[in-house]
Write a structure and sequence with these properties.
By secondary structure, the protein is mainly beta. A seven-stranded antiparallel beta sheet has the order 2-1-5-8-9-4-3. A three-stranded antiparallel beta sheet has the order 11-10-12, with no helix packed on it. A two-stranded antiparallel ribbon has the order 6-7. The chain is globular, with a radius of gyration of 18 Å.
Length: 209
């Protein structure tokens, strides 16, 4: 079975935000979509390891900012490569506005936002599926939404060129295909999680240096 087949699905990319008390937070997700049109409902799947997940579980509200092809890598670094448990992701960040639900939405590199109120949850083990009614939404630009494929081809920094035969050391490393983190070793543990972007071992590729 080729697990990379899942990459052929047409994932979008989003900044998912929440607010609890005076705390604002957000994370990157790639699983969101409309499930009914009347009434308008959307679904999001969120990893339980994300602090934003816990905030939504407790408050029952969130905002989904839809990333466009204008998004640059710094947005992914800010919202995807650090934890809201020990970092204020909105500190010194002016590119956000507060919606009608009191939650911040991202205004740079996005083409729209949707405010959701949780109606149902489904425990999926590593993730929770939230089904939410739409309370507010707006279009911010006409730039096409960015896809997972577009992110890999045009936004994520490309890996350095492979060394020439004269430069090769014979050392084996594993490179995260999401953020480029390098793990040194002949074998990558099956349960390894990237310390930078939190993606699993299945998102690493073997590289011989």
């Amino acid at each position: 079975m080729n697990e990379k087949t899942m990459f052929q699905l047409t994932y979008g990319l989003f900044v998912l935000t929440a607010r609890e008390g005076e705390k604002d937070n957000g994370c990157i997700i790639n699983t969101a979509g409309q499930v009914t049109a009347s009434p308008n409902r959307i679904s999001i799947a969120v990893n339980k390891g994300n602090y934003t997940h816990d905030m939504i579980l407790r408050t029952g509200q969130f905002t989904l900012s839809i990333l466009s092809e204008d998004a640059d890598f710094s947005i992914f670094q800010r919202f995807g490569f650090q934890s809201g448990r020990d970092t204020d992701k909105f500190a010194g960040y002016p590119e956000a506005k507060r919606g009608t639900n009191g939650i911040l939405y991202v205004t740079e590199g996005t083409n729209g936002y949707i405010c959701g109120k949780v109606e149902q949850t489904l425990d999926l083990g590593t993730h929770t599926l939230f089904i939410a009614s739409v309370e507010d939404m707006d279009v911010l630009s006409g730039t096409p939404s960015t896809t997972y494929a577009y992110y890999h081809a045009h936004i994520k920094p490309q890996p350095a060129a492979a060394p020439s035969s004269a430069e090769k050391t014979g050392k084996t490393v594993w490179r995260c295909t999401i953020c480029g983190y390098i793990y040194e070793g002949e074998e990558l543990p099956a349960d390894f999680i990237c310390p930078i972007c939190k993606h699993p071992a299945s998102d690493f590729e073997k590289v011989e240096q």
